[in-house]
Amino acid sequence: MRIAIGSDHAGYALKEEIKRYLEAAWDGQEPLDVEDVGCFSERSVDYPDYALTVARKVATGEVDRGILICGTGIGMSIAANKVKNVRAALVHDLFSAEATRKHNDSNILTMGGRIIGPDLAKAIVKTWLSTPFEGGRHARRLDKIADMEDDDSQFSRS
């Protein structure tokens, strides 16, 4: 599995922890191919730049999934979800990590570096990466979301 990972300055330290975790033999799993798109220090940057880079890579199939980290995870989630075919989920607990894969087939995980610590973040990543999409009724719902992305009439100006 190929993963793109990115952060802003507030998520930099946690991004580095997660990257090392994924590139090692994490919890008995094979190391993953991780592409770090930045940022590369705690110097202030704009999170939408990194969200867009990861989201485009996921949406085009260049990578299988993405992980984005900012201070709260909120900004990254909002920005990434502007890209068609992206289903970015903000997760800070194990139940949500599992549910967003089973029910929403999320392809980008966002987390807050100022909200959770590295041990919980690693557990979330492990759960998120190892949980398959259930399909079935959930696929029907995702089809409706995809239709919403294609429906420009909702934005028509009168």
TrEMBL record:
Stated name of the protein: Ribose 5-phosphate isomerase B
Keyword Transmembrane (UniProt): no
Family from the record: Belongs to the LacAB/RpiB family.
InterPro entries found in the cross-reference section: RpiB, RpiB_LacA_LacB, RpiB_LacA_LacB_sf, SPI_LacAB/RpiB
Source species of the chain: Candidatus Carbonibacillus altaicus
Record-annotated active site: 70 (proton acceptor), 103 (proton donor)
UniProt cross-references to PANTHER family, sorted A to Z: RIBOSE 5-PHOSPHATE ISOMERASE (PTHR43732:SF1), RIBOSE 5-PHOSPHATE ISOMERASE-RELATED (PTHR43732)
One of the protein's GO biological processes: carbohydrate metabolic process
Keywords, alphabetical: Isomerase
An MF annotation (GO) of this entry: intramolecular oxidoreductase activity, interconverting aldoses and ketoses
UniProt binding sites for D-ribulose 5-phosphate: 8-9, 71-75, 104, 114, 137, 141
